User: Fold this.
Amino acid sequence: MRSVLAIVAALAVVLTPVPASAHGSGKGPELTMRGADVSTLPRSLELGAKFYDFRGRRDNVYDILKQAGVNYARLRIWNDPTSGYSNKEQVLKQAKAIKAKGLKLLIDFHYSDTWADPGKQFTPAAWEGHDLPQLQKDVYDYTYDVCTSLKRQGTTPDSVQVGNEINVGMLWPVGYVANSDFGPVASLLNAGYDATKACNRKTQVLVHTANAGNIDAAHWFYDGITAAGAKWDITALSYYCMWHGSLDNLATVITDVKSRYAKPVVIAETAYPYTTENYDHLENIILSPAPCDGIPATPQGQAQEFSAVQDTARTAGALGVFYWEPTWTAVDGNGWDTEDIENSGNAWENMATFDDNGRINPYIRWEK
Assistant:
């Protein structure tokens, strides 16, 4: 076995898991949203993936994550993905498994048939050519339908995101922010907000951007939607140190936006590599042996960076931190491309918190 994994396996045999409750830093308020995005998990399980706890014992993956401190699961939802995964049917099914384990649920609406992020926000094929009033109705009806379907089966979402990393808008081109005109995107956000509250008043609505590293960009967007009358409950940010800068800067951004918009803040995505090894045919996104602050791409390094992000978020007054795709290991057939899931491969597997054998990093903790 590869050297890093051999070391982890040896250590995991002798390490006794410490209850997550014993790992609180004491540096600030408790992190109440300790999350894991597990959107690719159903496909991995169907393909035979097995998961193992700190001691190398096979167990239910949700129980393993709970043992590590997770209390919240995040699921993306695509309107009509070619792959047939992360759609409404799959999300409803996975939500049952999540809630059965006592975890809270965050639904991440991409409002797309595929990935939506700062560089692309493709309108679902069924909504192509719709004008703004029709898209407002589309967003409302779709959000309400998904939320009420979850509610009917006893898995009401605790939180939803209206859009995913919408730095310059959503549902392009209609919802794209051109010439700092935030009216269209604010109206789409409000359609999602109103639909969520009509489904369940207690469900919290997040507006999510990848602006944790750029306070000016955060001000431009959130000032803009505020002036245009957008409604939301929690400000959500993505933070990856290799792209978004130092932890000191992250603390500044969290503190600033929390005060400026008088709303709680959550880090909706973060991750760090545990190795530079590649376990499939697709090159990894992160290749550097020490991508941030000299922290090595090792199991210990991954845990160190994740702990530092959590400590920073806690001290700055954030509600919590979500790890992005800790279970997305290199399973043949569970690729990134919704149109070629069988063959496209996974460029993120070295960022998972489970190794290539399915064993969780024995050092990783979601800390209160």
Notes: Residues 120 and 172 are 8 Å apart (CA to CA). Residues 132-152 form the longest helix (21 residues). The chain is about 35% helix and 10% strand. Confidence is low (pLDDT under 50) at residues 1-26.
